[in-house]
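Sanity check record (used in CI):
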Amino acid sequence: MNSKKIIIDSMENISVYKLRDILCEKLNYIIKSHRPIIILCIGTDRSTGDSLGPLIGEKLNSLLKNELIIYGTLESPVHAKNLCTILREIKNKYNNPYIIAIDASLGKLQNIGHIIIEEKPLSPGAAMNKNLPKVGNLSITGIVNISGSLEFMVLQNTRLYTVMHLANVISRGIYHCILKTLGSKINSDFDIVLNSSIKKSTSKI
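Expected output for Spore protease YyaC:
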């Protein structure tokens, strides 16, 4: 499996379409084979920096709930305490699912706002030194803040703007991938709202 790391700067004007094209290339065969696709959005709304996953899940649940299987929303987040239970549920309920795992991450200052796509599992809670199972056939992570010491406090003090911008770009990238691959119109009114929110994101992260 090619685990080459692909990095997108979410502040680029074409970031949504870069993400769309990357996902289309990687998911085209999966979608056409009718293999169940699980979007597993990891995180909690109790921490600003760790809320990236649930925010993306919330947006996608409104956009693509009939096209994809989505776990992890603001109402029902997937986090450290229930991740293993959710993974068992997915294993028991779906035959050979393809899991796209989405989570927030910490990185270098100059990389805040970057989106990382890899064809390998991600390690949830790695920044917090949590011993959780690796998950995902494909992983998408958004760098929300700087890594170093006191990661818990760093996540708590992350700018909501940064997280929301990343959530908008990632959810739109996934949405446009499904739209392009399936060749159908899905909830275009909601996409107009997302487009508007992206265009208003003009300040630096």
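The first helix runs from residue 15 to 32. If this sentence no longer matches the regenerated tokens, the check is flagged for review.
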